[in-house]
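Raw record, unedited: 3-oxoacyl-[acyl-carrier-protein] synthase 2
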Amino acid sequence: MNRRRVVITGMGAVSPVGATAEESWDAVKNGRSGIDRITLFDATDYPVKIAAEVKNFDITRYGLEKRDVRKMARFTQFLLCASIQAVNDSGYNRDSLKNEKAGVMVGNCIGGLDVIEAGYQKYFDPKAGPSRIPPLTTPMMIINEAAANVSMYYGLNGLSWTLGTACASGTDALGAALDLIRFGRLDVCISGGTEAAIDGFGVASFTALQALSSSYNDTPKKASRPFDKDRDGFVLGEGSAVFMLEELEHAKKRGAKIYAEVAGFGSSCDAYHITAPLKDGSGAALAVKEALEDAGMQPADIQYYNAHGTSTHANDSGETNMLKLAFGEHAYKLHISSTKSMTGHLVGAAGAIEALFCVKAINESFVPPTINLDNQDIEGGCDLDYTPNKGISLDIEAAASASLGFGGHNGCIIIKKYR
């Protein structure tokens, strides 16, 4: 079967660094961090007191009423708002999209953790108990809730799927949507990722795993420092990024603007450890090599790589090894950056927001920086060009972004300039 070409015709984002795709890009382009002291709950007694929260989130900014979202968890609200942005940006609306062969493909890791915590508080409260658990706890907490609400908002009867592969969820969702359109299951797909896990239980759980940065509570904007010798863990983030993916001829027929083409996707599993990546990066390298093959590209065809770059010792050194395996000598010519140094780690939404930054990097011929890279960990094996502290202008024909999740799940998406 001939593969159809897939392009991006709309984008939206709700992130720790901006309420829209443009605001989020402007922040990372200029090295502005969205990491600060936690305000969503009282973290006074927590070892970790910082996170990358979505600031001043106002549901009415997106044409929604507060009453519309009382039955939605925070991760669903983020996805719906980012989806509205992407659909509007593409030139569609609620009426016109209903007539298309359209669906929803979303990546999410944790679901409605805020709803789960609130339910448990009622459950264990001796003055409340099981009978006082809110009746909508189950439909609000399950991970498919976000995609379902987007489908309901737009009246879409096509497939509405949620993919959960930990931190690779957003990337894998885009890859799945790519194939659904390529082979004719859909002509149009709302696709991306969403996450909202910054609550007491979420932060405490990641802290117990010794995954979060805990040394920079007094200087939060310095906490996420990928590939730096003084890194001590990732910073939990939240938000959503969404694309309108569309079959090329379909987009051209309706005169849609085209941001870029989704060229290839690869996926793999380390099959090694529930939290730790393979130190040599060989598992993740399979996903990158598969994405290159899928796109019909050679390593030298990629100019920019948006790193998973979590700011943990295990990830940053392992990912660097992965790049050397996947790209060979070209790894030393790649322009790399970890935008997590500014956004924190959006978990299931990370791959989606980082793919969005790849699109903007291509469109504006600019590589965003890795901030806080003050003492590059050369001795630890992090010896590539990570664009330290200041972005650079660069003509970018193609960009890659990989996401490496707990359980050894790896995904890589390749985006190229539309010709």
